[in-house]
Design goal:
By secondary structure, the chain is of the alpha/beta class. The protein has nine helices and 13 strands.
């Protein structure tokens, strides 16, 4: 079992086939790396019992696969945070269920890079270049105060986190070149990213010829950040200043991290 890196996957009912393909592929390259799965419920729907059983059956096929169920729809920020908090290793490689790892060198490249890290600001990097796949450490997540769980839908989590990252470290996160990763949805149906059609999904606001936008998260981002010529641009179109203050999240994770080894070999309580 890898003691440095785990894999974290976010998924939901409509993506079971993608998830199954993904886990089968990972296990063909690495038979024991920890795989954590956050399984989301669909918005305003009862959790599908048959789907729950399929996830459990898939998990039982392999060692070290740990599903975490959300019976009620949960925001992506909270799902990411739960993967980080529950990871048994210092680093976790978080990927969407529609990302396919098609090369065994992916893990080698990431682990080799982790070994070169000499500052906490380097303990988060996109792999390769977008938030469908990124590596983060528990320590850095604690320093940044995790992903903002007030984003209770999905969308805007990455932009908010990058803004906070730049504010703290005065630089952008690294984008690590990791060949051997592709998007399953694009391979199956390139038209899936064409959101120019209308939708009745209550999570979305329709924007013609652009994309479907989860309105709540967009509105929250607009409340949290306001245009400011002296602000930080990050992933936003304009420089922004923070208008809505952060709330402390997971306040005891640092205490747990600092004291965990004391459970088996007690020396002192690190306050």
């Amino acid at each position: 079992m890898n003691e440095i890196l785990s894999i974290g996957i976010t998924t939901f009912k409509n993506r079971f086939d993608f998830l199954e393909t993904q886990i089968n592929k990972i296990r063909s390259f690495n038979t024991d790396i920890n795989i954590l799965i956050t399984v989301n419920g669909n918005y305003q729907e009862e959790f599908d019992e048959n789907y729950r059983k399929k996830i459990l059956e898939l998990s039982l096929k392999y060692n070290n696969v740990f599903p975490l169920f959300f019976p009620k729809f949960t925001g992506l920020a909270k799902m990411w945070n739960n993967l980080i908090v529950h990871s048994p290793t210092p680093f976790i490689y978080i990927i969407s269920d529609d990302v396919l790892i098609s090369n065994s060198n992916v893990f080698t490249i990431i682990l080799d890079h982790i070994k070169t890290i000499n500052h906490i600001s380097e303990e988060m990097f996109e792999a390769p270049s977008e938030y469908a796949h990124f590596v983060i450490s528990k320590k850095l997540a604690i320093e940044i105060n995790f992903f903002d769980e007030r984003l209770i839908g999905f969308g805007e989590e990455d932009g908010d986190f990058v803004w906070q990252y730049i504010s703290k470290y005065i630089k952008h996160p690294l984008k690590l070149n990791v060949p051997g990763i592709r998007n399953i949805r694009m391979a199956v149906d390139p038209g899936l990213f064409d959101f120019s059609h209308a939708t009745t999904d209550p999570l979305y606001e329709f924007q013609p010829k652009i994309k479907r936008t989860p309105r709540f998260n967009t509105e929250f981002r607009m409340a949290k950040y306001k245009p400011n010529k002296n602000g930080i641009q990050g992933m936003y179109q304009y420089k922004m200043g923070q208008h809505l203050l952060n709330k402390i999240q997971y306040p005891y994770e640092k205490f747990i991290l600092d004291n965990y080894n004391n459970l088996g070999n007690f020396k002192k309580i690190n306050l």
